Amino acid sequence: MPTPQEVWAMLQAHEGETFYTAKGLPFHYLIHGRELFVNRKNKSITISTVANALACIKAREAAGEAITGPKKIGCYGASYLYPVFLQLGIIHLPQANDEPLQ
Predict the structure, then answer these.
(1) Who has the most CB within 10 Å: 8, 81, 83, 99?
(2) Which DSSP letter does residue 95 get?
(3) Helical H runs in 1-102?
(4) In 10 A of CB 66, how many CB atoms?
(5) How far apart (Å, rounded) are the C-alpha atoms in residues 34 and 20?
(6) What is the pTM of this model?
């Protein structure tokens, strides 16, 4: 799993691109300093929140849980972080024929 700093650099590289929430709603984001601003929200997602989301993902995957939706991340902004993390390859959806995580 990449570090929070590596993920932040990835987020910066994809700033302004269109992503889609799990419900199919389009959004994009801009980064100012250590905050990510989603065009559909008035509040920002901080780099600390991204780090917390990554820690949660790592813990759940270590426990054998697949991250199958935003609620599995369990942090503020998960509705937007989940599809971005999925698109950037940070989260992988299990395939129907994949072995369960151990």
Answers:
(1) 81
(2) P
(3) 4-13, 47-62, 78-87
(4) 15
(5) 22
(6) 0.87
**Which structure tokens are listed for 64?**
């054998």
**Residue 70 burial (CB < 10 Å; 0-12/13-18/19+)?**
buried
Backbone angles phi, psi at 40, to 5 degrees: -95, 0
Tokens of 5: 């700093």
pLDDT in tens, 21-70: 999 999 999 999 999 999 998 899 999 999 999 999 999 999 999 999 99
35: three-class secondary structure by DSSP:
strand
Q: What is the residue extent of each domain of the chain? A: 4-87
8 burial class (0-12, 13-18, 19+ CB within 10 angstroms)? Answer: middle
